[in-house]
Design brief:
Length: 309
Amino acid sequence: MSVIKIEQLTKDYGHNRGVFDVSFAVEEGTVYGFLGPNGAGKTTAIRHIMGFSRPQKGSTTVNGLNSWEHASEIQKTLGYLPGEIALPENLTGIQFIQMMADLRGIKDMTYTNALIGKFELNPSGRLKRMPLGMKRKLAIITAFMHDPAVLVLDEPTSGLDPIMQDRFIEFIKEEKERGKTILLSSHLFHEIDATCDIISIIKSGRIISTFIADELRNSSAKTYKFEFKSQEQFDRFSSEVKNHLHFKVQTLTSHKKQVILTVDSAAINDFIAFIAMYELKFFSEIKFTLEDYFMKFYDRNAIVERGIE
Protein backbone atom coordinates (compact mmCIF):
# COMPACT_ATOMS: atom_id res chain seq x y z
CA MET A 1 0.00 0.00 0.00
CA SER A 2 1.28 3.46 -0.95
CA VAL A 3 1.14 5.66 2.17
CA ILE A 4 2.68 8.72 0.51
CA LYS A 5 2.08 9.20 -3.20
CA ILE A 6 3.21 11.96 -5.55
CA GLU A 7 1.87 11.90 -9.10
CA GLN A 8 3.25 14.17 -11.85
CA LEU A 9 3.82 17.01 -9.39
CA THR A 10 4.89 20.29 -10.97
CA LYS A 11 5.59 23.61 -9.25
CA ASP A 12 7.56 26.03 -11.40
CA TYR A 13 9.04 29.05 -9.61
CA GLY A 14 10.87 30.18 -12.74
CA HIS A 15 14.57 30.17 -13.57
CA ASN A 16 14.54 26.35 -13.50
CA ARG A 17 13.58 26.32 -9.81
CA GLY A 18 10.89 24.03 -8.40
CA VAL A 19 9.84 20.47 -9.25
CA PHE A 20 8.80 19.16 -12.64
CA ASP A 21 6.64 16.09 -13.32
CA VAL A 22 7.83 14.33 -10.15
CA SER A 23 6.24 10.97 -9.32
CA PHE A 24 7.07 8.46 -6.60
CA ALA A 25 5.39 6.45 -3.86
CA VAL A 26 6.43 5.47 -0.34
CA GLU A 27 5.07 2.06 0.57
CA GLU A 28 3.90 1.15 4.06
CA GLY A 29 6.73 0.12 6.39
CA THR A 30 9.56 1.32 4.16
CA VAL A 31 12.16 4.08 4.40
CA TYR A 32 12.32 6.07 1.17
CA GLY A 33 15.41 8.18 0.55
CA PHE A 34 15.19 11.43 -1.37
CA LEU A 35 18.76 12.37 -2.29
CA GLY A 36 20.06 15.55 -3.88
CA PRO A 37 22.07 18.69 -3.18
CA ASN A 38 20.60 21.85 -1.69
CA GLY A 39 18.31 23.51 -4.21
CA ALA A 40 17.50 20.33 -6.16
CA GLY A 41 13.79 20.41 -5.25
CA LYS A 42 13.58 18.09 -2.23
CA THR A 43 11.99 20.63 0.13
CA THR A 44 9.56 21.84 -2.55
CA ALA A 45 8.24 18.30 -2.95
CA ILE A 46 7.95 17.88 0.81
CA ARG A 47 6.07 21.16 1.21
CA HIS A 48 3.46 19.77 -1.19
CA ILE A 49 3.23 16.49 0.73
CA MET A 50 2.57 18.51 3.90
CA GLY A 51 -0.08 20.63 2.16
CA PHE A 52 1.87 23.87 2.59
CA SER A 53 1.87 24.56 -1.15
CA ARG A 54 -0.65 23.93 -3.92
CA PRO A 55 0.53 22.09 -7.04
CA GLN A 56 0.34 23.73 -10.43
CA LYS A 57 -0.03 20.25 -11.86
CA GLY A 58 -0.37 16.76 -10.39
CA SER A 59 -1.21 15.73 -6.85
CA THR A 60 0.16 14.47 -3.53
CA THR A 61 -1.67 12.20 -1.11
CA VAL A 62 -1.01 10.75 2.35
CA ASN A 63 -3.03 7.66 3.28
CA GLY A 64 -5.27 8.39 0.32
CA LEU A 65 -6.04 11.97 1.40
CA ASN A 66 -5.20 14.86 -0.89
CA SER A 67 -2.47 16.88 0.81
CA TRP A 68 -3.77 20.29 -0.18
CA GLU A 69 -7.43 19.58 0.61
CA HIS A 70 -6.86 17.67 3.88
CA ALA A 71 -3.64 19.22 5.22
CA SER A 72 -4.83 19.71 8.81
CA GLU A 73 -6.22 16.18 9.06
CA ILE A 74 -3.00 14.66 7.66
CA GLN A 75 -0.75 16.67 9.98
CA LYS A 76 -2.52 15.36 13.10
CA THR A 77 -1.17 11.85 12.59
CA LEU A 78 2.07 12.56 10.73
CA GLY A 79 5.49 13.44 12.14
CA TYR A 80 7.20 16.28 10.27
CA LEU A 81 10.75 17.49 10.74
CA PRO A 82 11.48 20.59 8.61
CA GLY A 83 14.88 21.36 7.16
CA GLU A 84 14.87 24.88 8.56
CA ILE A 85 13.86 25.20 12.20
CA ALA A 86 11.67 28.17 13.18
CA LEU A 87 10.62 28.13 16.84
CA PRO A 88 8.81 30.69 19.04
CA GLU A 89 11.72 32.49 20.68
CA ASN A 90 9.80 33.71 23.72
CA LEU A 91 9.29 30.14 25.03
CA THR A 92 11.61 27.77 26.83
CA GLY A 93 12.19 24.30 25.46
CA ILE A 94 10.01 22.85 28.23
CA GLN A 95 7.17 25.23 27.38
CA PHE A 96 7.42 24.41 23.69
CA ILE A 97 7.33 20.66 24.34
CA GLN A 98 4.28 21.11 26.58
CA MET A 99 2.58 23.29 23.97
CA MET A 100 3.08 20.59 21.31
CA ALA A 101 1.85 17.91 23.72
CA ASP A 102 -1.31 19.94 24.39
CA LEU A 103 -1.91 20.46 20.67
CA ARG A 104 -1.64 16.71 20.09
CA GLY A 105 -3.63 15.71 23.14
CA ILE A 106 -0.71 13.88 24.74
CA LYS A 107 -1.30 13.26 28.46
CA ASP A 108 1.32 10.60 29.15
CA MET A 109 4.80 12.10 28.64
CA THR A 110 6.70 8.84 29.19
CA TYR A 111 7.65 8.41 25.53
CA THR A 112 8.52 12.10 25.16
CA ASN A 113 10.78 11.95 28.19
CA ALA A 114 12.47 8.85 26.77
CA LEU A 115 13.23 10.78 23.58
CA ILE A 116 14.62 13.69 25.59
CA GLY A 117 16.97 11.25 27.30
CA LYS A 118 17.94 9.48 24.07
CA PHE A 119 18.98 12.71 22.38
CA GLU A 120 20.44 14.29 25.52
CA LEU A 121 18.32 17.41 25.28
CA ASN A 122 18.32 20.01 28.03
CA PRO A 123 15.03 21.81 27.28
CA SER A 124 15.14 24.26 30.17
CA GLY A 125 16.67 27.22 28.33
CA ARG A 126 14.91 29.81 26.18
CA LEU A 127 14.64 28.94 22.49
CA LYS A 128 16.07 32.33 21.55
CA ARG A 129 19.42 31.40 23.09
CA MET A 130 19.50 27.73 22.10
CA PRO A 131 22.28 26.68 19.70
CA LEU A 132 21.25 25.13 16.38
CA GLY A 133 22.08 21.59 17.45
CA MET A 134 19.84 21.87 20.52
CA LYS A 135 17.01 23.31 18.43
CA ARG A 136 17.37 20.38 16.02
CA LYS A 137 17.10 17.91 18.90
CA LEU A 138 13.98 19.71 20.12
CA ALA A 139 12.46 19.52 16.62
CA ILE A 140 13.22 15.78 16.43
CA ILE A 141 11.54 15.14 19.78
CA THR A 142 8.39 17.09 18.89
CA ALA A 143 8.21 15.36 15.48
CA PHE A 144 8.29 11.91 17.10
CA MET A 145 6.61 12.56 20.48
CA HIS A 146 3.13 11.39 19.37
CA ASP A 147 4.64 8.17 17.94
CA PRO A 148 3.29 8.73 14.41
CA ALA A 149 3.10 5.88 11.89
CA VAL A 150 4.18 8.19 9.06
CA LEU A 151 7.22 10.46 9.16
CA VAL A 152 8.44 13.11 6.73
CA LEU A 153 11.99 14.17 7.56
CA ASP A 154 13.72 16.98 5.67
CA GLU A 155 17.50 17.14 6.30
CA PRO A 156 16.87 15.67 9.77
CA THR A 157 20.45 15.69 11.13
CA SER A 158 21.43 19.16 9.92
CA GLY A 159 23.16 20.92 12.82
CA LEU A 160 23.74 17.76 14.87
CA ASP A 161 27.23 16.69 15.86
CA PRO A 162 28.54 13.34 14.44
CA ILE A 163 27.67 11.39 17.59
CA MET A 164 24.06 12.59 17.50
CA GLN A 165 23.87 12.00 13.74
CA ASP A 166 24.80 8.36 14.33
CA ARG A 167 22.31 8.12 17.20
CA PHE A 168 19.57 9.49 14.96
CA ILE A 169 20.42 6.96 12.23
CA GLU A 170 20.17 4.12 14.75
CA PHE A 171 16.85 5.56 15.94
CA ILE A 172 15.48 5.56 12.38
CA LYS A 173 16.50 1.91 12.03
CA GLU A 174 14.57 1.15 15.22
CA GLU A 175 11.51 3.03 13.94
CA LYS A 176 11.74 1.10 10.68
CA GLU A 177 11.74 -2.18 12.65
CA ARG A 178 8.55 -0.98 14.34
CA GLY A 179 6.90 -0.69 10.92
CA LYS A 180 7.01 3.08 10.47
CA THR A 181 6.68 4.58 6.98
CA ILE A 182 9.40 7.20 6.50
CA LEU A 183 10.34 9.67 3.79
CA LEU A 184 13.87 10.89 4.48
CA SER A 185 15.19 13.78 2.41
CA SER A 186 18.91 14.43 2.72
CA HIS A 187 22.13 15.46 1.01
CA LEU A 188 24.20 13.15 3.25
CA PHE A 189 25.22 9.93 1.52
CA HIS A 190 25.88 7.97 4.73
CA GLU A 191 22.50 8.94 6.18
CA ILE A 192 20.57 7.75 3.12
CA ASP A 193 22.73 4.65 2.60
CA ALA A 194 22.43 3.51 6.23
CA THR A 195 18.64 3.73 6.51
CA CYS A 196 16.80 3.59 3.20
CA ASP A 197 15.11 0.75 1.31
CA ILE A 198 14.46 2.72 -1.88
CA ILE A 199 16.31 5.82 -3.08
CA SER A 200 15.43 8.49 -5.61
CA ILE A 201 17.99 10.98 -6.88
CA ILE A 202 16.65 14.41 -7.80
CA LYS A 203 18.41 16.92 -10.03
CA SER A 204 17.12 20.35 -11.05
CA GLY A 205 13.62 19.46 -9.87
CA ARG A 206 13.41 16.15 -11.76
CA ILE A 207 13.86 12.59 -10.52
CA ILE A 208 16.65 11.09 -12.59
CA SER A 209 17.01 7.69 -10.94
CA THR A 210 15.07 5.45 -8.55
CA PHE A 211 16.47 2.14 -7.32
CA ILE A 212 16.34 -0.45 -4.56
CA ALA A 213 19.17 0.29 -2.14
CA ASP A 214 20.15 -3.37 -1.59
CA GLU A 215 20.59 -3.91 -5.32
CA LEU A 216 23.20 -1.16 -5.37
CA ARG A 217 24.87 -2.40 -2.18
CA ASN A 218 25.03 -5.96 -3.51
CA SER A 219 25.91 -5.14 -7.10
CA SER A 220 27.23 -8.17 -8.98
CA ALA A 221 29.83 -6.03 -10.75
CA LYS A 222 33.17 -5.85 -8.96
CA THR A 223 35.82 -3.21 -9.63
CA TYR A 224 39.53 -3.82 -9.09
CA LYS A 225 42.62 -1.66 -9.19
CA PHE A 226 46.05 -3.20 -9.73
CA GLU A 227 49.58 -2.29 -10.76
CA PHE A 228 52.07 -4.34 -12.77
CA LYS A 229 55.67 -4.85 -11.75
CA SER A 230 57.00 -3.97 -15.21
CA GLN A 231 56.05 -1.95 -18.26
CA GLU A 232 56.30 -5.10 -20.39
CA GLN A 233 53.67 -6.81 -18.22
CA PHE A 234 51.39 -3.75 -18.44
CA ASP A 235 51.72 -3.56 -22.25
CA ARG A 236 51.01 -7.28 -22.67
CA PHE A 237 47.92 -7.01 -20.45
CA SER A 238 46.70 -3.97 -22.40
CA SER A 239 46.85 -5.97 -25.60
CA GLU A 240 45.45 -9.28 -24.34
CA VAL A 241 42.58 -7.93 -22.23
CA LYS A 242 40.81 -6.86 -25.44
CA ASN A 243 40.05 -10.54 -26.12
CA HIS A 244 38.00 -10.86 -22.91
CA LEU A 245 34.59 -9.32 -23.48
CA HIS A 246 33.44 -9.91 -19.87
CA PHE A 247 36.16 -7.63 -18.50
CA LYS A 248 35.46 -3.91 -18.79
CA VAL A 249 38.58 -1.76 -18.53
CA GLN A 250 37.80 1.59 -16.89
CA THR A 251 41.29 3.12 -17.06
CA LEU A 252 44.75 2.19 -18.34
CA THR A 253 47.44 4.44 -16.86
CA SER A 254 50.63 3.58 -18.71
CA HIS A 255 53.14 5.73 -16.80
CA LYS A 256 51.96 4.24 -13.50
CA LYS A 257 51.43 0.74 -14.97
CA GLN A 258 48.00 0.75 -13.28
CA VAL A 259 44.60 -0.55 -14.36
CA ILE A 260 41.06 -0.13 -13.06
CA LEU A 261 38.79 -2.87 -14.35
CA THR A 262 35.20 -4.02 -13.74
CA VAL A 263 34.09 -7.63 -13.99
CA ASP A 264 30.74 -9.32 -13.31
CA SER A 265 30.70 -11.85 -10.49
CA ALA A 266 29.88 -14.65 -12.94
CA ALA A 267 33.22 -14.06 -14.66
CA ILE A 268 35.37 -13.69 -11.51
CA ASN A 269 37.01 -17.11 -11.86
CA ASP A 270 37.95 -16.40 -15.47
CA PHE A 271 39.38 -13.05 -14.41
CA ILE A 272 41.45 -14.53 -11.57
CA ALA A 273 42.86 -17.18 -13.92
CA PHE A 274 43.71 -14.48 -16.46
CA ILE A 275 45.34 -12.04 -14.06
CA ALA A 276 47.37 -14.86 -12.44
CA MET A 277 49.51 -14.95 -15.58
CA TYR A 278 50.97 -11.52 -14.68
CA GLU A 279 53.25 -10.20 -11.97
CA LEU A 280 51.50 -7.56 -9.90
CA LYS A 281 52.83 -4.97 -7.50
CA PHE A 282 49.43 -4.61 -5.78
CA PHE A 283 45.82 -5.69 -6.27
CA SER A 284 42.74 -4.31 -4.46
CA GLU A 285 38.96 -4.11 -4.81
CA ILE A 286 37.29 -0.72 -5.17
CA LYS A 287 33.95 -0.78 -3.37
CA PHE A 288 31.10 0.76 -5.38
CA THR A 289 29.19 3.20 -3.19
CA LEU A 290 26.05 5.31 -3.28
CA GLU A 291 28.30 8.32 -3.78
CA ASP A 292 29.89 6.68 -6.85
CA TYR A 293 26.46 6.05 -8.34
CA PHE A 294 25.29 9.56 -7.52
CA MET A 295 28.34 11.07 -9.24
CA LYS A 296 27.25 9.52 -12.53
CA PHE A 297 24.52 12.17 -12.62
CA TYR A 298 26.24 15.14 -10.95
CA ASP A 299 29.43 17.08 -11.52
CA ARG A 300 31.49 16.77 -8.32
CA ASN A 301 32.65 20.40 -8.24
CA ALA A 302 29.12 21.69 -8.79
CA ILE A 303 27.60 19.72 -5.94
CA VAL A 304 30.33 20.71 -3.50
CA GLU A 305 29.37 24.32 -4.19
CA ARG A 306 25.67 23.57 -3.68
CA GLY A 307 26.10 21.56 -0.51
CA ILE A 308 26.29 17.80 -0.43
CA GLU A 309 28.48 15.39 1.52
